[in-house]
Amino acid sequence: MKRALPVALILVACGGPPAPDNPAPVGSLLAQERPLPPAGYGTLRQDDIAVRIQTANLQMQLLPLDEEILRLLASDSYRSLTALRDSRGAAIEAAKERARVADPRLMFVTIFGKQPQVRFDPQQLFIASGNVFFRPLEIVPLSPGWSEQRVSPREQASAIYLFEPAIRLFEPFDVQFEGAISRQWGQSVRRLEDERSRVLARWRAENPDSTPPR
pLDDT (tens digit, 0 to 9) for every residue of the chain, 214 residues total? Predict the structure, then answer.
């Protein structure tokens, strides 16, 4: 299993600034310690929270498949993404066993071509969260031609990536793809937290004497 690397090591190797003396610890997400929002009340679209990176020849889109995040999407998006994730359940379980990780972060990744027959390297997708640089543990292809590692205009290649569970989904993190970096997730976190508050308020208005179901 490929290990996550401290961001400090990556920056030093690249000649960048050193990491803080007391980096934030990598632990359980706050999301794991609070109730899940009820399904069916979200209004966000996938485009509202997806991370996108443009290179000269490619566009990459990344969307976490965490249940708390999916429940904040509109009902059609929630159903389609949970169905996509669940349809690959056996392959995901096999990938978890290979990676020896019980509860990985699942990321739905789609790559679009901007030129004919553009090659891409699926391993060149990284996430930096909490001063730690995370490499993919496993990749579960969704597109039949994923193994060709080529994509053209009006085509797309998609897969589910498995990352270590220490990635903090409800804090800003950086995404790097083939050398390009996006910090867009910070905006997505704000939208998700605002939507979570609205979802819980709507649910409580309809169920004043109950707690949100898990």
Answer: 555 655 544 433 444 434 334 443 333 334 445 778 888 999 999 999 999 999 999 999 999 999 999 999 999 999 999 999 999 999 999 999 999 999 999 999 999 999 999 999 999 999 999 999 999 999 999 998 899 999 999 899 999 999 999 999 999 999 999 999 999 999 999 999 999 999 999 988 888 877 766 6
Sign of the torsion angle spanned by Cα atoms 180, 181, 187, 191: positive
**Region for 126 from its dihedrals, namely left if φ exceeds 0, alpha if ψ lies in -120 to 50, beta otherwise:** beta
Under a CB-based contact definition with an 8 Å cutoff, are residues 129 and 185 in contact?
Answer: no
Helix (H, G, I), strand (E, B) or coil at 70: helix
Compute φ and ψ for 57, nearest 5 degrees. -120, -5
Angle between helices 75-87 and 89-99 (to 10 degrees): 60
Q: Which residues contact 152 (CB under 8 A, 6 or more apart)?
A: 113, 115, 116, 117, 118
Phi, psi of 61 (to 5 degrees): -125, 135
Locate tokens 């679209």: which residue? 45
Taking only Cα atoms into account, the Rg of the chain, rounded to an integer number of angstroms, comes to: 18
Taking alpha carbons only, the member of 111, 106, 107, 48 closest to residue 74 is 48
Distance (Å, whole) CA 8 – CA 16 = 9
**pTM (predicted TM-score):** 0.83
